[in-house]
């Protein structure tokens, strides 16, 4: 896609950032090369020199995006750790990353590469470190290691659907998900281990 | 919105059905009054005589939609009942209603009335009848009645996110959700009752 003309990395970055902002602000229906050009303060031809079409640009913008996951301090209980990790995801989902994920979801299934980028870019700050489980077993809170993928599966699904339905994801909702769904699933998983 | 001109109910129904089909087939990005008119074999002016704009038409099309939930035979165990109800939702989500829900999700949050219609129209065939819980308590499978809303919350979230991510929702996945997440949550809810 590149030509003999030297590329301007700053210009490229500005175009990719404008693409993500448009998706987050106006959704896929409001996303066009023309709108990106206007937002990035560049010419449509500049964009077309680097990317074939809007889908090519969209995939590049998502590949370039690195969600920011703040560090999480270790708590002194399994429940404390789970609340902290679920709350971090709630913050992401309530912010720019959630709006971006919603914009990406709006892309049609037939856009090549979108499903994979969607998977990679749906806020997945809910991936639970192995260490959380190890510590819970050491503290005697769990009788055996559990399938920690259950955490991400449950928390990201429930919080994402709340976001899609424009329902509030607050501390009470996060506590409900951890206490009433994740912890019972973990205890069951430990029993079966 | 109606004028002195007599309305043709069949024509109206055809326009609303075409709206739903377009949303399910091409998503919100492919939805326009022009495309609906072409699909319904009518003139754009006919549509504008009845509905103010595309959002007005979209809300009317969703209000008019009655998802078909097939009857479910009672099983002889709580697990059997839960699998049957979750499977029915999986069938809906894998079919027209799931594609329609995805199309509606693509509408922007600022479209008045969409959030409510989305809530009403996201396949909710997962609403568990009280009878399923009563029977489980009678059979001694649960020590006390549980919060049955947990079923709908868990199943519709997990299955919807799978659909959005274009991941398979098959019998194995349904059994995983019931066995590893719903049943542990129910047992926990019964303990706390």
Automatic annotation (TrEMBL), chains A, B:
Q: Which residues bind DNA?
A: 32-51
Q: Supply one GO molecular-function term.
A: DNA-binding transcription factor activity
What's the name of the protein?
A: TetR/AcrR family transcriptional regulator
Keywords from UniProt, A to Z, are: DNA-binding, Transcription, Transcription regulation
Q: Does the keyword Transcription regulation apply?
A: yes
Against InterPro entries, the record matches this protein to: Homeodomain-like_sf (IPR009057), HTH-type_TetR-like_transc_reg (IPR050109), HTH_TetR (IPR001647), Tet_transcr_reg_TetR-rel_C_sf (IPR036271), TetR_C (IPR011075)
- Note whether Ion transport occurs among the keywords: no
Ranges of residues in domain HTH tetR-type:
9-69
Against Pfam families, the record matches this protein to:
TetR_C_11, TetR_N
Q: Which organism is it from?
A: Saccharopolyspora terrae
PANTHER family found in the cross-reference section: HTH-TYPE TRANSCRIPTIONAL REGULATOR RUTR, TETR-FAMILY TRANSCRIPTIONAL REGULATOR
Q: Gene3D superfamilies under this entry?
A: Homeodomain-like (1.10.10.60), Tetracycline Repressor, domain 2 (1.10.357.10)
């Amino acid at each position: 896609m590149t030509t003999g003309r030297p590329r301007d990395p700053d210009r490229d970055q500005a175009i990719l950032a404008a693409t993500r902002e448009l998706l987050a602000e106006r959704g896929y229906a409001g996303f066009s090369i023309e709108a990106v050009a206007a937002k990035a303060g560049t010419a449509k031809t500049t964009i077309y020199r680097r990317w074939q079409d809007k889908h090519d640009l969209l995939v590049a913008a998502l590949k370039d995006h690195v969600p920011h996951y703040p560090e999480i301090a270790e708590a002194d209980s399994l429940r404390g750790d789970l609340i902290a990790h679920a709350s971090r995801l709630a913050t992401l989902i309530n912010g720019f990353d959630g709006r971006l994920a919603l914009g990406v979801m709006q892309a049609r299934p037939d856009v090549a590469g979108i499903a994979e980028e969607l998977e990679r870019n749906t806020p997945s700050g809910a991936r639970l470190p192995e260490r959380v489980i190890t510590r819970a077993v050491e503290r005697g809170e769990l009788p055996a290691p559990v399938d920690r993928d259950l955490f991400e599966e449950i928390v990201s699904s429930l919080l994402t659907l709340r976001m899609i339905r424009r329902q509030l994801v607050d501390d009470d909702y996060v506590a409900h998900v951890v206490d009433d769904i994740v912890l019972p699933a973990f205890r069951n998983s430990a029993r079966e281990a």
